[in-house]
Amino acid sequence: MCEDCKSIADEYAELLAMRTRALIAAQEKVEELTHQLETAKRQSADWERHAKLGMPELILAWLDSQVKP
Hints:
Elements: H1 3-52, H2 55-66
Protein backbone atom coordinates (compact mmCIF):
# COMPACT_ATOMS: atom_id res chain seq x y z
CA MET A 1 0.00 0.00 0.00
CA CYS A 2 1.33 3.46 -0.84
CA GLU A 3 2.09 5.97 1.91
CA ASP A 4 -0.83 8.22 0.96
CA CYS A 5 -3.25 5.30 1.08
CA LYS A 6 -1.86 4.16 4.44
CA SER A 7 -2.14 7.69 5.82
CA ILE A 8 -5.74 7.97 4.65
CA ALA A 9 -6.58 4.54 6.09
CA ASP A 10 -5.01 5.48 9.45
CA GLU A 11 -6.89 8.75 9.54
CA TYR A 12 -10.15 6.97 8.69
CA ALA A 13 -9.54 4.40 11.44
CA GLU A 14 -8.89 7.20 13.95
CA LEU A 15 -12.04 9.07 12.90
CA LEU A 16 -14.07 5.87 13.13
CA ALA A 17 -12.75 5.20 16.64
CA MET A 18 -13.59 8.78 17.69
CA ARG A 19 -17.10 8.43 16.27
CA THR A 20 -17.60 5.12 18.08
CA ARG A 21 -16.48 6.64 21.40
CA ALA A 22 -18.80 9.62 20.87
CA LEU A 23 -21.75 7.33 20.12
CA ILE A 24 -21.07 5.26 23.23
CA ALA A 25 -20.88 8.41 25.37
CA ALA A 26 -24.10 9.72 23.83
CA GLN A 27 -25.88 6.41 24.46
CA GLU A 28 -24.77 6.45 28.10
CA LYS A 29 -26.09 10.00 28.46
CA VAL A 30 -29.41 8.99 26.88
CA GLU A 31 -29.72 6.10 29.34
CA GLU A 32 -28.90 8.40 32.28
CA LEU A 33 -31.43 11.01 31.18
CA THR A 34 -34.07 8.34 30.55
CA HIS A 35 -33.56 7.08 34.11
CA GLN A 36 -33.86 10.63 35.45
CA LEU A 37 -37.04 11.16 33.43
CA GLU A 38 -38.60 7.96 34.79
CA THR A 39 -37.71 9.03 38.34
CA ALA A 40 -39.22 12.47 37.77
CA LYS A 41 -42.41 10.93 36.35
CA ARG A 42 -42.76 8.70 39.42
CA GLN A 43 -42.21 11.65 41.75
CA SER A 44 -44.70 13.72 39.76
CA ALA A 45 -47.30 10.97 40.02
CA ASP A 46 -46.72 10.77 43.78
CA TRP A 47 -47.10 14.53 44.18
CA GLU A 48 -50.24 14.53 42.05
CA ARG A 49 -51.72 11.70 44.11
CA HIS A 50 -50.90 13.57 47.33
CA ALA A 51 -52.34 16.79 45.96
CA LYS A 52 -55.66 15.06 45.30
CA LEU A 53 -55.92 13.66 48.83
CA GLY A 54 -57.82 15.43 51.56
CA MET A 55 -55.94 16.70 54.60
CA PRO A 56 -56.65 13.65 56.87
CA GLU A 57 -55.64 11.24 54.12
CA LEU A 58 -52.51 13.28 53.43
CA ILE A 59 -51.47 13.18 57.07
CA LEU A 60 -52.10 9.42 57.22
CA ALA A 61 -50.10 8.89 54.02
CA TRP A 62 -47.23 10.91 55.44
CA LEU A 63 -47.30 8.97 58.70
CA ASP A 64 -47.33 5.71 56.77
CA SER A 65 -44.32 6.85 54.76
CA GLN A 66 -42.39 7.57 57.96
CA VAL A 67 -42.89 4.06 59.36
CA LYS A 68 -40.02 1.83 58.31
CA PRO A 69 -40.78 -1.91 58.49
